[in-house]
Amino acid sequence: MAKVYYQDSVGVNVLQGKKIAIVGYGSQGHAHAQNLRDNGFDVVIGVRPGKSFNQAKEDGFAVKTVAEAAQEADVVMILLPDERQPEVYETEIEPNLQPGNALVFAHGFNIHFKQITPPEDVDVFLVAPKGPGHLVRRTFTEGAAVPALFAVYQDATGTAREKALSYADGIGSTRAGVLETTFQEETETDLFGEQAVLCGGATALVKAGFETLVEAGYQPEVAYFECLHELKLIVDLLYEGGLANMRYSISDTAQWGDFVAGPQIVTDETKNAMKKVLTDIQEGTFAHGWIAEHKAGRPNFNAINEKENQHQIEVVGRELRAMMPFVKPRVKLEV
Ligand code: NDP
Ligand code: MG
Ligand code: MG
């Protein structure tokens, strides 16, 4: 079994007393910054003027430009959207790195796909929480945590590994467990997970189930509750105790249906499609396609997003959720 690091295996916290610049104050940024501060670390925020700049100020942080924050920090954690990192890195971060500093990521994308090439005299590592930023913060305030991966890409000082563990401890992840990986493994498994299972797989499965019921003449509201709303309750059971815990809670009829129908839905063909998705990730086809799409102004991204927001499951869902005030999105979206 892989070695898992917990609070007691961190040792001396080498980042205590060092200045940590959190670049970006979005989903991950606000969570890392607040958890580190609560754990006694010295944090400065680097972000462009705007919404998150104001939010970070309101939350009581010292907020600077990215260049200023990078300049004064010993550790620079880049928590900008992946596709925007290379530009900000080149113009504002790289010119402000000193030998012995640490450059940190929460995803290996830009290092692994060679969009960022750091100087040789800085430590480069990643600490990647395995969960959305808002949960990194919420679980921390509840005394729990989101687990994380860490990996060292470049060890200029001989202490990169200790720094990575210290950082993971600082954001609270050692409460849940921290695993060592490589930039390659983190990048490829993270992209595969979100594409095949967590985001792409899950949304496609939910939509296909909803459409099947509606096309067969059932009420869209019933189909919404059945295929989308209830999924959360099932996922909570999976999270708490794996497949067996979920199957313990459902009826035997549902469990038998799970056994006979599941393999008819996710077939060898589906698995072959997953292997193709994985190959595209490993060969860089996905990454280079996404970089090109972003550089072209995201024509396909925006068109698909617009179409998805108008899908019947979204229209019905918005109406039904408005009647359930206890079901609240974290962020109010304009659609
Ligand atoms: P977000 O999109 O939530 O955060 C974006 C932040 O970057 C905002 O504060 C935004 O400011 C700022 N920003 C955007 N462009 C610029 C710019 N040109 N100059 C300065 N600041 C800018 O990012 P995430 O938290 O989702 O992702 C950050 C990293 O964490 C990525 O590497 C991602 O792969 C990784 N990660 C993300 C997870 C998640 O839960 N989302 C999970 C695990 C890893 P403004 O408000 O002005 O737009
Ligand atoms: Mg990801
Ligand atoms: Mg049922």
From TrEMBL:
Reactions this protein catalyses: (2R)-2,3-dihydroxy-3-methylbutanoate + NADP(+) = (2S)-2-acetolactate + NADPH + H(+); (2R,3R)-2,3-dihydroxy-3-methylpentanoate + NADP(+) = (S)-2-ethyl-2-hydroxy-3-oxobutanoate + NADPH + H(+)
What cofactor does this chain's UniProt record say it requires?
Mg(2+)
Indicate which residues the UniProt annotation says bind Mg(2+) 2.
Answer: D190, E226, E230
So what EC number does this one have?
A: 1.1.1.86
The catalytic residues are H107
Q: Where on this chain does NADP(+) bind? A: Y25, G26, S27, Q28, R48, S52, G133
Cofactor descriptive note: Binds 2 magnesium ions per subunit.
In the record, biological process GO terms are: isoleucine biosynthetic process; L-valine biosynthetic process
Binding of substrate, residues: S251
Highest taxon, organism lineage: Bacteria
Which key words are in the record?
Amino-acid biosynthesis, Branched-chain amino acid biosynthesis, Magnesium, Metal-binding, NADP, Oxidoreductase
Q: Where is the KARI N-terminal Rossmann domain?
A: 2-181
Q: In which pathway does it act?
A: Amino-acid biosynthesis; L-isoleucine biosynthesis; L-isoleucine from 2-oxobutanoate: step 2/4; Amino-acid biosynthesis; L-valine biosynthesis; L-valine from pyruvate: step 2/4
The answer to whether the entry has keyword Oxidoreductase is yes
InterPro entries with a match to the protein in the record: 6-PGluconate_DH-like_C_sf, KARI, KARI_C, KARI_N, KARI_prok, NAD(P)-bd_dom_sf
Q: Which positions bind Mg(2+) 1?
A: D190, E194
Instruction: Give the Gene3D superfamilies listed for this entry.
Output: 6.10.240.10, NAD(P)-binding Rossmann-like Domain
Task: Describe the function of this protein.
Answer: Involved in the biosynthesis of branched-chain amino acids (BCAA). Catalyzes an alkyl-migration followed by a ketol-acid reduction of (S)-2-acetolactate (S2AL) to yield (R)-2,3-dihydroxy-isovalerate. In the isomerase reaction, S2AL is rearranged via a Mg-dependent methyl migration to produce 3-hydroxy-3-methyl-2-ketobutyrate (HMKB). In the reductase reaction, this 2-ketoacid undergoes a metal-dependent reduction by NADPH to yield (R)-2,3-dihydroxy-isovalerate.
Family, as annotated: Belongs to the ketol-acid reductoisomerase family.
Protein name (database record): Ketol-acid reductoisomerase (NADP(+))
Organism of derivation: Ectobacillus ponti
Task: Name the gene for this chain.
Answer: ilvC
